[in-house]
TrEMBL record:
<dbReference type="GO" id="GO:0016705">
    <property type="term" value="F:oxidoreductase activity, acting on paired donors, with incorporation or reduction of molecular oxygen"/>
</dbReference>
<comment type="pathway">
    <text>Cofactor biosynthesis; ubiquinone biosynthesis.</text>
</comment>
<dbReference type="GO" id="GO:0004497">
    <property type="term" value="F:monooxygenase activity"/>
</dbReference>
<dbReference type="InterPro" id="IPR051205">
    <property type="entry name" value="UbiH/COQ6_monooxygenase"/>
</dbReference>
<dbReference type="InterPro" id="IPR010971">
    <property type="entry name" value="UbiH/COQ6"/>
</dbReference>
<keyword id="KW-0560">Oxidoreductase</keyword>
<protein>
    <submittedName>
        <fullName>2-octaprenyl-6-methoxyphenol hydroxylase</fullName>
    </submittedName>
</protein>
<keyword id="KW-0285">Flavoprotein</keyword>
<dbReference type="InterPro" id="IPR036188">
    <property type="entry name" value="FAD/NAD-bd_sf"/>
</dbReference>
<dbReference type="GO" id="GO:0006744">
    <property type="term" value="P:ubiquinone biosynthetic process"/>
</dbReference>
<feature type="domain" description="FAD-binding">
    <location>
        <begin position="7"/>
        <end position="336"/>
    </location>
</feature>
<dbReference type="GO" id="GO:0071949">
    <property type="term" value="F:FAD binding"/>
</dbReference>
<comment type="similarity">
    <text>Belongs to the UbiH/COQ6 family.</text>
</comment>
<keyword id="KW-0503">Monooxygenase</keyword>
<dbReference type="Pfam" id="PF01494">
    <property type="entry name" value="FAD_binding_3"/>
</dbReference>
<dbReference type="InterPro" id="IPR002938">
    <property type="entry name" value="FAD-bd"/>
</dbReference>
<keyword id="KW-0274">FAD</keyword>
Amino acid sequence: MSHADPDIAVIGAGAAGLAAALCLAREGFHTLLIGDPAIAAPGRTVALFGGSVAFLQALGVWEAVSARAAPMDAMRIIDDTGSLFAPPPLTFRCAELGLDSFGCNIPNDDLVGVLAAQARQTPGLELAPETVAEASFSPAGPQLVLASGRALRPRLAIGADGGRSLVRARAGVGVRTWDYPQAALTGVFSHTQPHRNTSTEFHTRHGPFTLVPLPGKRSSLVWVTEPGKARRLAGRAPEALALEVEQQARSMLGAMRVTGPCGVIPMRGLTAERFAGHGMALVGEAAHMFPPIGAQGLNLGLRDVAALRDALIAARDRGARCDDADALAAYDRGRRLDVTTRTRAIDALNRSLLTRLPGVDFLRGAGMLALGHIRPLRRLAMREGLAPLLGLPAMMQADGASRPR
């Protein structure tokens, strides 16, 4: 591979960065991916909805991903807040939308491994498994210096380097951040009863307790609770922790056993003030961070990538370069509505669980009852939860996008 300046440099080799590099290299842009494939926190899995599945199909990696993933056919919500207005359990089924599945759940490291393997054999994609030492952005374009000393002047630099993004900082992009009085315990558990491809979410006074199916009789856990309790749970002996998880899950999946390392994630959020400009674009957690509620994080990050691809292809079709200001402005505008909508929805849901105000409990319970009994509203909520109603980027609209069997 030539060491000439690339058209596009992607900084960050997590799932979003790998996806961006693969996507743009396949479109004919000389692309450089900077970074080592990122390892997630222990016990992290990612739930991918239909549009993300279609995107992975278009990248040619879906067969390898699906072999390591479990489909999600139903999503069950159980109010465990003790509220006087607690509604009965609510179950959303993929068949209600005419789908074979809502999507799939896969360990994050497995997904990163599949994408990294594809990156190593993709023409037009150069790999630089190192870090960026210096970066600057101006109207003249980005300038990068790698840890090896190699200097670069790509036309476009894509920041996929996470919540502490160097690209975002060097580009002078401010952020809005917020914290919650919570932390999330994550891990993978086996159980004696089948999950039947159903994700179950208990709403508690300290946050959601969610079990998401994995292949076989295994599920991934995201238990949002008080930070001190999350740390105490993570420090318990595996047998004691498994028993606590089993009891919190009301033994719905039978006896449970810890099958891997557990981790604790602080609950916080972040949104960049802008997502692009001056030869720079942000994707994934460099642009927005969510608490692990509602499975929105990586699905939004992949929509960032697919939307940026659409903007760059449109610029090329009209004879413009990949750093075209109008294309980057269009990307910024288009992603802001989707991200803002998801941010507010997740924030409202989480904060509604933390309050004990009767009025909030009543409104939450009434909303759940309405979803349980008004079919058009249920279908609208399911569709909006899976993808924005205003449409998906082109690569997420492939035939069979929501049929990931």
